[in-house]
C-alpha cells in the first residue's frame, strides 16, 4: 500500500501524439490493437514506461520491428521499452476480458452492453498507455462486433465511416479531432434504443444529439434531452462556451460506479441520472438528472478542453464544474431553494467529512488510492471556494476572468494555480492568503460578537477566526474570505455599511483576512440585529449567541438567513431537549408563524420547516448518542404536530391533488410541502392520519408522494405498511431503478429488526451485489441509517464490515464508499468504540484488501 505525493510530480518523459485503436469485440474477450505515435519530451529519457493492468499482452512492435521477450520488461502493472529516439511508432496487440471485470473500470459489461469507465486510471485496463491526464492525444477508434449483438457502436468524436463485414460483423470508425487525456476515452457497443434531437450552436453549427438506453426505456429519456439542450444554451449565454463536435451522445447503463462520466462527445451515465417519468421518478430524481446532465456537459470546457495536470488537481475541474452546475440549476429553478439544497448537502456530507479522520484539503498533497478522493470535499467544498471568488469578483469580472482562463489554457493540462492567476487578474483584492483554502483542511469557525455604542452611533463587530488543527494535529493559518452581512433595523431594513477598518468588496460583503477583526460600523442609529454569512458567503461555522432567531425568521430579507435562523433555533431547541429540558415555547411559536404564513412560497416553506437532521445533531455531539437524538427529534415532531394539527391537516388537504404529477417548480414545491406536513402529522400517532397516508399512497400519481407515503407508513404505521410494500414491490419489481427505492425504504427504516430484513433482502430476486446502485440502496442506506447502524448490540457494525469485505473482492470502489460509514469511530462511546474497533481491525487485517478500503480504514483507525 504505497503513498503518492504531489511533490514527486514530474512531467511525462514521453507523450502520445496520436493513438489509433481497433477493438474486435467477441463474446468471451476483446482484442485490442493500439498504434501510438510517441514523442520524447525529456531529452535524457531512455526508457518508455507504459501503464497496463490485467492485460494479456500478445505482440509488440517498435517502428515495425516485432519485439521478442528479451527486448522489453513486463512488470505487473507496466511495460518498459528501451527507447532512445525522439519519435517512435509503437504497435501493441493485447486481449481483455470485459465479462470478468467486476470492478467496472476499463471496458466491462453492464447487462448486455459493453461500456467503459476510464477516469481516473481505467484506460490502462484496456491497453498499454501513458495513462495520466497531462498526456493529451488524438484518438481514432475502430470497433468491430457482431451486427446482431451490437447494432450500436460508439466512441468519442465524429463518426467517420461504417461498413458491413463477413460473418455477420460490422465496423464503425470514430475520430476525435481534439486531443484529450486517456481518461476521457470511451467506447460503447450493444443493442440499444435511442432518442435523437439537434442543437444549433451560437455560431450556427448543427449538433446531432442522441441518448441511448436499454430498449423499451426510450420514453424515459426526454427529460434528460431537454436538460441537455438547456445546458448547451446556458453555457453559451453564461460563459460564451460553444460545443465543439458534430455529435453529442449520452448512454445510460445500469451498472456504474458513480453518477456519470464526461467522456469527450460520449458521456456514459448511470441510468439513475437519465431515465425518468412521472410514474417512476421522484422530483429529486428529475432535479438530479437536470443537474448531472448539465455537470457532464459543462465538463466539455472545464475538464476536457482544459484538463488537470495530475490527479491532485482534481478540484480544478470538479469544484469549478459543480459550481457551474449549481448556478445552472439555480437559473433553471429557484436561486434560493437551490442554494439551500446545496448548503444543506455541503453541511451534511462535506462538513462531516472535514471533521473526521478522512479529512483532506480540496487539493490533497498525497493519496494512496485516487479513487478515494472523488469526495464531497474536492467537489462541493471545491465549488464553495470558486463561489467565494465569484462573490468577490462579481458576475461581470468573474466572466472576464473565466474568459481569460479559457483563452490562456485551452488545450492544456493545468492546475488550480493557473485558474487562480485568471481570477487574480480581475480581483479587487489580493488572493494570496485566499489560496489557503486549497491546502488546509477542516471547517473554520467564526466567533462573532458585537457591541453597540449609542453615544457615537457605532456598532463594533468582533469576528474571531477559530482555525482547527489538521488531521495530523498541526496548526493551520487563518483564511481570507468574503463575509456577507447586514445590520438590521427594527423593521428589517438594512443600515448601509460604512467602516474605515475593513475592505468592503461589495456594499454588503466584507473581506476578512485577520484572525481577529474589530470592525466599527458608523451611522447606526439604534442597536441593530446581526444578519451573518448571508447566502452562506463562506463555508464556515458561525458561533454567535446574539442572534435573534424569531426576528430573523420573520424579517430577514436574505432567504438563507431566514432558513438558517430556523435551523439554528431548531438545533438549540433539540439540544436542550436532549439535556432534559421541556420544548421551547418560543420555538414552537416561531415555527407556527412560518407554517401559517401564506406569503411564503411552498418549496421554501418546506425547507424552513425541516427539522435539523440526526446527522447534523450527531456531528455536534462530543460523544455520539443516537438514541438521545432520535428520541428528542421524535418528541419535537410530535409536539409540533399536536399543536398545529388542524392547521397542518387543512393545509395538507389544500395542497393535495392526486392527479398532479407535473414536473414544474410550483408543483414540486406543493408536493415537498405536502410531504413535509404529512411527515410531521404521522409522528402524532393518530389513526385517521395513518389512514390518510395510506390513501395518499394509493391515490397519488407522482412517485414523490407515493414514496414518502410508503416511507412514513413503514416508520409510523407498521400494520398498514406491509400491504403497501407488497403492492409497491409487485408493481415495480421489473424496474431496477424503482427497486432501488424499495430497498432504500426498507433499509432506512427506524423500526427494530431492520438489519435482519436487510440481510434477507439480499436474497431477493431484484437484488444483485454486482450492481452498485442496488448495493448503495440496500447496504448503503442501512449504513447511513443511524438508528440501525449504531444499534447497541453492535450487529450493525458487524454486518456492514462483513459487506465491506465481501464487496471489496468484487468492486473496491463501492466497498471503500461503504467503509466511510465507520468514520465516526473517534467520537463513539467507550463501549461502541470497542465494538466498531473490532470490526475495523477485522477489515484491515483481511488478506488481499484493496488499496481503496485499506486507505480509508487505516485513516479511521489512526
Ligand atoms: N468525472 C467523473 C467522476 C469519475 C469518478 C471516478 N472514480 C464524473 C464527474 O465528476 O462528472
Ligand atoms: Zn465532474
Give an account of the 3D structure:
The protein is 40% helix and 22% strand. It has 4 domains: 4-277, Sandwich (Immunoglobulin-like), CATH 2.60.40.1730; 307-439, Neutral Protease Domain 2 (Neutral Protease, domain 2), CATH 1.10.390; 445-538, Immunoglobulin-like (Sandwich), CATH 2.60.40.1840; 740-862, Zincin-like fold (Alpha Horseshoe). The longest helix is centred in the middle third of the chain and has 34 residues, at 376-409. An 8-stranded mixed sheet has the order 6-5-9-3-2-12-15-14, with no helix packed on it. The protein has a 5-stranded mixed sheet with strand order 17-18-19-21-20, with helices on one face. A 4-stranded antiparallel sheet has the order 10-11-16-13, with no helix packed on it. By secondary structure, it is α+β, with helices and mostly antiparallel strands. A hairpin with a 4-residue loop joins strand 14 and strand 15. It is built from 26 helices and 33 strands. Helix 5 (376-409) crosses helix 6. The mean pLDDT is 98. Bound molecules: (3S)-3,7-diaminoheptanoic acid and zinc ion. Keywords: Aminopeptidase, Hydrolase, Metal-binding, Metalloprotease, Protease, Zinc. Residues 443-543 form the Peptidase M1 alanyl aminopeptidase Ig-like fold domain. This is Aminopeptidase N. It comes from Sulfuricurvum kujiense (strain ATCC BAA-921 / DSM 16994 / JCM 11577 / YK-1). Residues 548-862 form the Peptidase M1 alanyl aminopeptidase C-terminal domain.
